[in-house]
Amino acid sequence: MASASSNSPTAIQLDAVGKSFGAIKAVSPLTLRIAQGERVALLGPSGSGKTTLLAMIAGTTAPTTGAIALRGKPLAGMRPGRDLAALVGMVHQQFDLVPHLSALNNVLAGRLGQWSAAAAMLSLLWPRDKDRGIAALERVGVAQRAYVRAGRLSGGEQQRVAIARLLLQDPAIILADEPIASLDPTRAEEIIALLAATAQETGKTLVASIHAVSLARRHFTRIAGMRNGAVQFDLPAHQVTNDLLDALYALPGLRDEAQSA
Cα separation of 130 and 179, whole Å? Predict the structure, then answer.
């Protein structure tokens, strides 16, 4: 894959990283450098390995081969909790909110990596860092829904709450796995614009898998195309042509989604 500018500190470094599930190579070994502050979109058909690649960077899936470093620190052996939470945070397609808790309580879950177990339990009754939680909700435009149960929010509101939770976590690297798959086009544009603006304003690194080519071109600085577990191209967004995209999504030669991760 292409390298980021050598003048910028490295946020994500993958060296010959690959992942196999039995005989299936979900991600073929690849070497990749993403610089601090870059916004990278992962494009490709379903089952092309985008989710697996993000899971390896997030530390939730161990690679079969190779090594990963986040901001110069080896990911292997790093324990979930404060250290990892400070480095990387994930926004999922499913939002991962607790439906019966308020939007504010869900946002405050972004601080769990900073609290003891006892403090986390007490926060369910007497929310800690309430002002910071409200400020995060205000930043994403849903502060007025702070005390509404997450299960009663619309899909777009739930995704904004998930992003507010990530803001409170304050990781150096933001990963997003199909964050707009369940949203209508207008809400999808709003969410991607919000993620991109947040990363740009704070200097955070953003890596997101999406299917909307137009949004990738508008809001990301770099696009990597994945197909059948392999990287087909990795280019500045303005250099990604329609011919490259047509080849990326062409049906002939595309492996069965059920056989990939």
Answer: 26
pLDDT at 209 over 90: yes
- The number of angstroms, rounded, from the C-alpha of 240 to the middle of its chain's C-alpha atoms is 21
Name the packing angle between helices 130-139 and 155-169 (round to 10°): 130
131 DSSP assignment: H
Please give the tally of structural domains in the chain: 1
Q: Is residue 160 situated within a structural domain? A: yes
Domain assignment of residue 64, yes or no: no
Q: What pTM was computed for the model?
A: 0.86
Residue 123 placed within a domain: yes
CA distances from 223 to 10, 17, 232 (A): 17, 19, 11
pLDDT at 39 over 60: yes
198: Cβ–Cβ under 8 A, 6 or more apart, which residues? 139, 163, 167, 174, 204, 206
- Taking CA atoms, 237 is separated from 101, 177, 209, 222, 228, in Å, by 39, 19, 14, 5, 21
- Identify the domain containing residue 147 by its residue range: 98-169
Across 6-10, average pLDDT: 81
Tens digits of per-residue pLDDT, 82-123?
A: 678 889 999 988 778 989 999 998 998 877 555 444 444 555
Q: Do residues 104 and 127 make contact, with C-beta atoms less than 8 angstroms apart? A: yes
In a domain, residue 189? The reply is: no
* 8 A C-beta contact, residue 167 and residue 198: yes
> In angstroms, rounded to a whole number, what is the distance separating the alpha carbons of residues 126 and 259?
47
Q: Residue 175: which of 48, 16, 50, 31 has the closest Cα?
A: 50
